[in-house]
Amino acid sequence: MGDLERINHVADIIKAEASSRHKVVVVVSAMSGVTNRLVDNCHQISAIHDPREYDAVVSSGEIVTAGLLSIALQDRGIDARSWTGWQLPIETDRSHGRARIENIETIELNNALSKGQVPVIAGFQGISPDKRITTLGRGGTDTTAVAVSAALRAERCDIYTDVDGVYTSDPRIVSAARKLDRITYEEMLEMASLGAKVLQTRSVELAMKHRVTLQVRSSFSENVGTLVCDEEDIVEKETVSGITYSRDEAKITLMGVDDRPGVAASVFGALADSNINVDMIVQNVAEDGSTDITFTVARADLELANDVIANKSGVGCREMTSDSSVVKVSVIGVGMRSHAGIAQTMFRALADKGINIQVISTSEIKVSVLISEEYTELAVRSLHTAYGLDAE
Amino acid sequence: MGDLERINHVADIIKAEASSRHKVVVVVSAMSGVTNRLVDNCHQISAIHDPREYDAVVSSGEIVTAGLLSIALQDRGIDARSWTGWQLPIETDRSHGRARIENIETIELNNALSKGQVPVIAGFQGISPDKRITTLGRGGTDTTAVAVSAALRAERCDIYTDVDGVYTSDPRIVSAARKLDRITYEEMLEMASLGAKVLQTRSVELAMKHRVTLQVRSSFSENVGTLVCDEEDIVEKETVSGITYSRDEAKITLMGVDDRPGVAASVFGALADSNINVDMIVQNVAEDGSTDITFTVARADLELANDVIANKSGVGCREMTSDSSVVKVSVIGVGMRSHAGIAQTMFRALADKGINIQVISTSEIKVSVLISEEYTELAVRSLHTAYGLDAE
């Protein structure tokens, strides 16, 4: 949420919703830049800081928005009141900075709703068993909204963002990208984790678990957004829903590794011990008792990963190379489960443009390939066309 | 409190105190400008706003400071933690925006102190019986500090401000003004209410009621500040402690008012009904069955006061005049109780400079006069010299 103008604008939206006989509960984030500034303050005071104090500091932005929005709603004749995480309460575990919601007390919310009041809840935060303020981490306000929706068995949870829905691909790259009317939770999860930064993975997981129908929509337009829902709620399902890409990738190749049991475990165990997430993994067929292993990590982890393998894994190899000028491009669609040939269309489309595939990984509903970063736009546009996703 | 540098500086001060075997409890205000910005936000959203939401919004600044200061203390090896008003809790009444503290729960504070922890309390706020956040109004952080000191029976309550103590007069006007070592609660109350903006009246009243010894000192210097304490704790007491002035005055004169019972009640009753505070009042001896009434109000209330008298008081007069170019100058000292001639010294000193006195009012420990504003500096300096207060 932005500045005061934006609060007034959101109040207008809520007024329209509340006037159309809907019972409305609002969950708000901090005004733009506020939380980042508070996070910076903590880092400037001390590089290492007590996460409980960090949470007390960074949770304040949402409380301010909740109060201001309540005032704006009252100014429009709507009975509204703000709620902090500790007032409801929203009970979480003790994992400060990335707490998980354990229970949302709905007595007060239901009381408010039954007397026609609009509750405005400060997102992103809760209270621990020690009565300390906790925060939920990145995308925490979306998570709060979904959890509140689940607790109240809400008909729908509308997530207002700065985009007007979920697109078949990044409109900045693919001018022919289309807004999707509906998408399944599973697809949205792949979209979220693969770089389409509309919704955080965690809030989608929570929505899927509790079958909360989400609508991703813009606070700047009245357009209908994209519904994120169960597969069975989508009548006409396209095979492929979208093409995504992620530049946050780096590739490491170990050549001439001993081909014996336990080698992979040593490599990836050492990386896991250093909290390095490994994504795609390929191991070639062994020749002469030795093999090559290629895998990808987040770009920010590349240096650390190289160090861990060289010094801590206890695995020898003839040569280790790494490359951070790679991109992961993915084709996503639940329809893949029942359609053959999806991957083949991808490989052919890329081959036609002369794009070399470095690594491939697949799941039930996606195919991802690692390619040289310079081909990003070309690959994404070609695949968008190849799967018939272009807007007419 | 100012920016992050200031937080670090305050952490250094607290470390020094805590290292000298003192048990320390800290009460913090918001960083400079933060609360004013939040107040502005509320006003911008709506001229009339729910005081409960206002409190939720404007109370956030102190929580941020408490968290950041705790981090800064931990960074210096001191065990510290932040406390919000609702966590302790600090229980107040329901008067949002100007709530009164009813109880401070000290169990948690004493637990923390007994294990050597430094509690850092967010000032200015508490929690109402309805579990809503309340704020204490202007100077609320000082009030919290005094109330916490009283609840814990603290040896002393140090108030860190941007001045290094209480002076015999405003050093910007009187270059010879001296810092006082000690001053009584009663004198400090007169100083506070008469325009020396060091401490809010309410925190001094509370300190007096609970016999909490205050020290007003600067966070920018190591100098000893001014102790505010009981009269009996001051051995060598000067007759006059200080000369103060207040420009926030306006004078209204009603000429030719009927001299009959109930007229004054009508005038001042009507003003009270409109929440206008009347300060000095003079009524001349009646001539020919009519009299003149002169009184002062805050400058901001002048227009409203004129309107109330003309249209709502039901009192007729021959003529009504008002003047907002006046200033109230006061001589303050508990020694006046036992010394005669204090007022006479004042009147003579002003007469010697040709300054005309418009209204006089006195109490046990002060004499105030209303004079033309243009004589402010001359009057204050002359009185400072006349009472022997000038530094050598």
What is the top-level CATH class of one domain in chain A? Alpha Beta
Describe the sheet with the most strands of chain A. 4 strands, mixed
Distance between the termini of chain A: 33 Å
Number of extended strands of chain A: 19
Annotated CATH topology of one domain in chain A = Carbamate kinase
Could you give me the name of the CATH homologous superfamily of one domain in chain A? Acetylglutamate kinase-like
Helix content estimate of chain A = 25-40%
Give the count of helical stretches of chain A.
Answer: 12
By CATH, the architecture of one domain in chain A is named: 3-Layer(aba) Sandwich
Derived structural class of chain A: alpha+beta
Oligomer: homodimer
Determine the strand fraction of chain A and express it as a percent band.
15-25%
**Which descriptor suits the 3D outline of chain A?**
globular
Please state how the strands of the largest beta sheet of chain A are arranged side by side: 8-10-11-9
**What is the typical, i.e. mean, pLDDT of chain A?**
92
Please provide a brief summary of the model.
2 copies of one chain form a homodimer. Helices cover 34% and strands 24% of the residues of chain A. By secondary structure, the first copy, chain A, is of the alpha+beta class.
